[in-house]
Amino acid sequence: MSKELRQRIAQYGIRAKKGLGQNFLSDSEYVYRIVDAAELSSGDVVVEIGPGPATLTPHLAEAVGPEGKVLAIEVDESLRPLLTDLCREYPQVEILWQDALKVDYDAVTAPYRGDKPFALVANLPYYITTPIMMGLLEGRFNLSHMVIMVQKEVADRMLAQAGTKDYGALSVAVQYHCEVKLVTKVPPGAFIPPPKVSSAVVRLNRRRQPPVSVSDEKAFFRVVRAAFNQRRKTLLNALGGLGLEMTKMEMSERLARVGIDPGRRGETLNLDEFARATDALYR
C-alpha cells in the first residue's frame, strides 16, 4: 500500500463495506497501469465510477489537468469528508453522489466536453459489473473508451471467442459494441481487503459501427440470449424459445439457407453467424 493511501485511510477512518462490494485498489503499480491505459490528455473529460478512498482519482485529475474534468460517481456517504477535501485540492474533480446504474452519462458530462466524447475509468464492484457494463453499452452514450477493473472471470468472458468455454452472451454484446483488449491481470493482494478471486483490467474502445450488419438489433440480441440460455441444446431447439410463428422445419430451412447448421450449439456461432441467423429468422 502506498504511504499516501495508508495515511488517507487512517485519517478518515475508512473501512471497505462488504455490502457495497468494496475492495480498494492499494498497489500503486496497477494504479499507474490503469491511468496509462486510459491515455488521457489535458482537457479531457473522464468519468470514474467508485472512487473509494481516491486511489485513482488524483492521478486522473493530474492526467486531464486544470483544463479537464473528473466526474467521480460514488454512493458511499462515509467517503464524503475524504472526497470533499480531495475536491479542494483538485478543483477539476467533482463528486456525483449518485447510483452509477441510474446516471445519464451524456447529461452529466455535456457541460464540460461540448461535442467531444468522454472516457470512463472504473474499479467496478463485482456484483454489479454486468448491469453497469450493459447499461453503458446499450445507453448509446458519447463514450470513446473505458478502462475497467473486473473479476478475471468476467474479463475472460469479454475476450472469449466462439467455441470456447468462456464464450457467451456477454462476449457477443461487448464485442458487438467495442474492441476489447486485456491490459493486465491483478492479484488479490493488490486490494484492501483482498478479494477471493483474481481481477483483470480491460480496455474497451467503443466502435463507431458494429463489426456486423443486422437489420434489427433488438432481434439480434434476442437470438443471442436464446442461444445461450440453454447452452446444451442445439441451436434449433434453443431458438424455439423465441416464440416465432414458424415450425421447426421452417426454422431449420431458414438457418440452412444462410449456411448455419441448425444442429450446432449456440456457443459455436460467431457474431457474423448470429447476424445471419437473425436476418434469416426475422426477415
UniProtKB/TrEMBL annotation:
<feature type="binding site">
    <location>
        <position position="99"/>
    </location>
    <ligand>
        <name>S-adenosyl-L-methionine</name>
    </ligand>
</feature>
<dbReference type="InterPro" id="IPR001737">
    <property type="entry name" value="KsgA/Erm"/>
</dbReference>
<dbReference type="InterPro" id="IPR020596">
    <property type="entry name" value="rRNA_Ade_Mease_Trfase_CS"/>
</dbReference>
<keyword id="KW-0694">RNA-binding</keyword>
<dbReference type="Pfam" id="PF00398">
    <property type="entry name" value="RrnaAD"/>
</dbReference>
<feature type="binding site">
    <location>
        <position position="23"/>
    </location>
    <ligand>
        <name>S-adenosyl-L-methionine</name>
    </ligand>
</feature>
<comment type="function">
    <text>Specifically dimethylates two adjacent adenosines (A1518 and A1519) in the loop of a conserved hairpin near the 3'-end of 16S rRNA in the 30S particle. May play a critical role in biogenesis of 30S subunits.</text>
</comment>
<keyword id="KW-0489">Methyltransferase</keyword>
<protein>
    <recommendedName>
        <fullName>Ribosomal RNA small subunit methyltransferase A</fullName>
        <ecNumber>2.1.1.182</ecNumber>
    </recommendedName>
</protein>
<feature type="binding site">
    <location>
        <position position="50"/>
    </location>
    <ligand>
        <name>S-adenosyl-L-methionine</name>
    </ligand>
</feature>
<dbReference type="InterPro" id="IPR011530">
    <property type="entry name" value="rRNA_adenine_dimethylase"/>
</dbReference>
<dbReference type="InterPro" id="IPR023165">
    <property type="entry name" value="rRNA_Ade_diMease-like_C"/>
</dbReference>
<comment type="similarity">
    <text>Belongs to the class I-like SAM-binding methyltransferase superfamily. rRNA adenine N(6)-methyltransferase family. RsmA subfamily.</text>
</comment>
<keyword id="KW-0808">Transferase</keyword>
<feature type="binding site">
    <location>
        <position position="25"/>
    </location>
    <ligand>
        <name>S-adenosyl-L-methionine</name>
    </ligand>
</feature>
<feature type="binding site">
    <location>
        <position position="74"/>
    </location>
    <ligand>
        <name>S-adenosyl-L-methionine</name>
    </ligand>
</feature>
<dbReference type="GO" id="GO:0052908">
    <property type="term" value="F:16S rRNA (adenine(1518)-N(6)/adenine(1519)-N(6))-dimethyltransferase activity"/>
</dbReference>
<keyword id="KW-0963">Cytoplasm</keyword>
<keyword id="KW-0698">rRNA processing</keyword>
<dbReference type="InterPro" id="IPR020598">
    <property type="entry name" value="rRNA_Ade_methylase_Trfase_N"/>
</dbReference>
<dbReference type="InterPro" id="IPR029063">
    <property type="entry name" value="SAM-dependent_MTases_sf"/>
</dbReference>
<feature type="domain" description="Ribosomal RNA adenine methylase transferase N-terminal">
    <location>
        <begin position="30"/>
        <end position="208"/>
    </location>
</feature>
<feature type="binding site">
    <location>
        <position position="123"/>
    </location>
    <ligand>
        <name>S-adenosyl-L-methionine</name>
    </ligand>
</feature>
<keyword id="KW-0949">S-adenosyl-L-methionine</keyword>
